Amino acid sequence: MKGDPGGEATRRPTGSPGDRGHPADGAVTQAPSWPRRSLGVLIGCLTALFGALHFLAVGIVLGPFLLWPRSRPGALDVLMAGARRLTGLERNRRSVFFGDRFPEHYKASDQKLLRYLAVRCYTGLLCAVVIGLLGFGGVLAGLTANGAIRGTLGWGQFLTQVLLGGVLLFLDLQGLYSLAALDTRIARECFGPSERELLRHRVDELSTSRAAVVQAVDAERRRIERDLHDGVQQRLVALGMLLGRARRGRTPEQASALLLQAHQESQAVLTELREVTWRVYPSALDSLGLQEALGGVAERCSIPLRTRFEVGAALPKPVETAAYFVVSESVTNAAKHSSASAVSVRVTLDGTLLTVRVEDDGAGGADPAGSGLTGLRSRVAALDGVLHVDSPLGGPTTITAEIPCA
What we know:
Blueprint: H1 8-11, H2 34-67, H3 72-98, H4 110-150, H5 155-191, H6 195-247, H7 252-280, H8 284-287, H9 290-300, E1 305-310, H10 317-337, E2 343-350, E3 353-360, H11 371-381, E4 386-390, E5 397-404
Parallel strand pairs: 1-2
Antiparallel strand pairs: 2-3, 3-5, 4-5
């Protein structure tokens, strides 16, 4: 069967969005050979017969018990026990002969299992009929060829038989192709999330990420307002008071001392204002790139910071921004709260996945649900990335962000 879609699920992941990149939840890179898939189709016809016999036997033996409400639960248990064994057999058949890999954690409902088994019985038995017709057509083709060789069949009759046989062969092969595609589709929907479930999960994920981003932006605005109000504004008030006292100074020496204090205070204000602007958005990120911006983080860090930057290609601006803030916030938290004496940062690009790893030797115990880490997680999730926090008591604390660049 040329182009048998039985290998389609081997190329398309069957897991959820959060399972990307793992063979156990996704796809096999190389589809099995066509003889192996053909054997799987033939075995599928046999398993479909078993399923039909199961439904027939249960319908005959347990039909009255299924209709009576009091005995229905027990009869359904018997029905589902056999259905689970048969669907497990179908799952193993898809894995062995078609190379499908389905998510282990996904459990289909009883209703979905029964629906799959019913459709599988129909498609499997119909596939057996189509294969039987194909074999019967092969016998007729042999008889027609034999008649043409012996001269008992005229050329007009022979050409008519060849034309009709070619049309029927095309329809037969197309039927096998379509049935194999349907078998692949219903298996993927039963043993892994269906297209509708994946779409619903994606919509929920995007809604959650959007709400989290809005909350993170509001929290960032409040933090900026607090930094300006409690830091820069208070220093500017002190600077104004010093200048006022200098103007009212009675002696040149007193005015000179106050002006010196005012000059020192203005330098402190500029330093703090520069820190606030860097926390809002570093201009070096646009003009010099991520590596130079991380160098600025190292210069402003109060503890030793070692950075390894292993990125050999240009990164999208949103990815650079997210990576910068992951490093900046993680390093700031390590310096302020973890009593760390050293921090290491490693930024690597593997294909289209950027990995940012920040590790410190502090006391650990960081709360993944804290406002700072929650904001980082929302920022990374907005780009379809994930943030992992490993911070046992006693340390070390490791924060890893994986951000896709495609």
